Amino acid sequence: MNYVEELRKIVGHRPLILVGSVVLIIDEKKRILLQKRKTTHYGAWGLPGGLMELGESTEETAKREIFEETGLTVGKLNLIDVFSGADNFLKLSNGDEFYSVTIAYYTENISGDIKMDEMESLELKFISLDELPKNMVKSHRKIIDSFLSKRRV
Length: 153
Hints:
By secondary structure, the protein is an alpha+beta fold. Helices cover about 20% and strands about 35% of the residues. The chain is built from 3 helices and 10 strands. The strands form 3 sheets. Strands 1, 4, 6, 7 and 8 form a 5-stranded mixed sheet that branches. The longest helix has 13 residues, at about 60-70. The chain is globular, with a radius of gyration of 15 Å. It starts with a helix and ends with a helix. GO terms for molecular function: hydrolase activity.
């Protein structure tokens, strides 16, 4: 059982503040890796990542989540920004509510072969930045837009 599941046993569905990390992974063709989600935001495209466990840094969270969801190992992470506030409120289908504090990174330093976790993803795909899908997690699109506005690619 993970930290959030343990916490939910105590507080039920009440709103929580949860910290997570996502990573904008850029390949050699300057495409980004998107995940068609199977859990939160079912069927929408988003960035791979997830919630922090006790004792982890946000960088450790990012690297662990990327490996778990994609099979890829990431090296140096570069901060895009921190995203929080009322726009990051979620109410899940099971009634759980939370405000997400998301630390967003980007990297071009990846190794390994993609091995999708079928419990969390419907599909993983490198997509050109000028061909982003319309059905995206709203907060993840905001992260990508912030990244692009800084002209990092």
